[in-house]
Each structure stands twice: as structure tokens, then as C-alpha cells.
Specification:
Strand order of the largest sheet: 2-1-3
Number of strands: 3
Distance between the termini: 11 Å
Helix content: under 10%
Structural class: mainly beta
Number of helices: 0
Length: 54
């Protein structure tokens, strides 16, 4: 099993303002207040890694 990644999308540039978090491997639609307004996003490992390269 590989690592689980989390993606956080922010309303403002520079990773600031309101944000929306999606958990690894899940495909979701952004909420209406964030859709077409997202200025920055980041992905990070949220655990669950048990294979090589973790």
C-alpha cells in the first residue's frame, strides 16, 4: 500500500484564506464558494505509507 496524500486548495494565493481539504485517492467536486476562485493548492503525505520510498 502506498502513501495517502491530502490536497488542500486555498481561496487566496500564498496558501492563505479559506481552504478545502480532500483526502488521498478520493475524487470530489470543489464547493461552489471555491470553484473558479482557487488561487493555490498543496499536496502532502498524510500517512499510511508502508512501501519502499516512503
Amino acid at each position: 500500500m502506498g502513501p495517502l496524500f491530502t490536497c488542500r486548495t486555498y481561496f487566496n494565493a500564498g496558501y492563505s484564506g479559506y481552504s478545502f481539504k480532500t483526502l488521498g485517492g478520493k475524487r470530489v467536486s470543489l464547493p461552489t464558494w471555491l470553484k473558479n476562485n482557487s488561487a493555490s493548492s498543496e499536496s502532502y503525505c498524510s500517512g499510511g505509507c508502508s512501501g519502499p520510498g516512503c
